[in-house]
Design goal:
Layout: H1 2-12, E1 30-35, H2 50-66, E2 72-76, H3 79-93, E3 112-115, E4 124-130, H4 153-161, E5 164-172, H5 185-199, H6 201-207, H7 218-229
Parallel strand pairs: 1-5, 2-3, 2-4, 4-5
Length: about 240
């Protein structure tokens, strides 16, 4: 299914069996990119993205209203963005007391807002993924995505996007076409993941034009897995 198709192809060489669902199967399952083009990353103050945070809250309310029986979690790239989402949610909930039960504390299966580095074993039916980073007050976009730029950042991304059982929604002000060339594996994985969220499986085919080629030995297969795990596009 599309929820883990990207990680399946990019990290595991296609050997995982995914949950059901596809990019175009509607509001309940699969993977969707929610583009918020007017959002601004406040690099000068706050280091957060309030407009994108409010878009995340809109999606939280949508699912709380239409899918109250499904568990939901929010993953933000940075602690600052996670805090901003919490702030915007608290303010908006004052007008929606009817949803209070949805947000009741439940450590094992309840609603949460966490940053990328805090999400490990948590799984929910639906995950909202807030990128937060984007063009700043001057319109400039740097290739700095916090924990993603650190060593092992691509593994953090993989953990985050595979927390969902049924659906992932990526809320972002930037798309794959906004990215500059970089050698950072984590950033390259994010660009490819955003492309996949927007265009579907065709994005993976475009990134890997010879994806039908096969390795000629177990050693070659192992090397291929390692190289792809480092964030590079590699073909046999």
């Amino acid at each position: 299914g599309s929820v883990i198709t990207y990680s399946n192809r990019a990290f595991y060489g296609g050997r995982l069996i995914g949950y059901p669902g596809a990019v175009d199967e509607g509001e309940g399952v699969g993977l969707r990119l929610v583009h918020v083009p007017d959002a601004v990353y406040r690099r000068g103050e706050g280091r957060d993205n309030p407009i994108e945070a409010r878009a995340v809250v809109d999606r939280i309310f949508f699912h709380a209203t239409h899918h109250p029986d499904r568990s939901l979690g929010v993953v933000a790239f940075s602690d600052a963005q996670a805090m901003r989402i919490g702030y915007e949610l608290e303010a908006a909930r004052r007008d929606r007391p009817d949803l209070d039960a949805y947000f009741a504390e439940d450590r094992l299966g309840g609603f949460f807002v966490k940053n990328l580095e805090s999400v490990q074993g948590d799984e929910r039916d639906i995950i909202l993924f807030s990128i937060g980073y984007g063009r700043d007050e001057t319109g400039k976009l740097t290739m700095n995505f916090g924990p993603l730029n650190k060593e092992g950042g691509h593994r953090r991304l993989n953990v985050a996007v595979t927390r969902a059982r049924q659906r992932v929604e990526v809320v972002t002000s930037i798309t794959a076409g906004d990215f500059a060339e970089t050698a950072n594996p984590g950033v390259n994985h994010l660009r490819r993941y955003l492309d996949f969220a927007q265009r579907g499986v065709v994005a993976l085919t475009a990134a890997d034009p010879d994806s039908t080629a096969e390795t000629e030995s177990p050693f070659e297969e192992e090397v291929l897995d390692v190289v792809r795990g480092l964030g590079y596009v590699a073909v046999p």
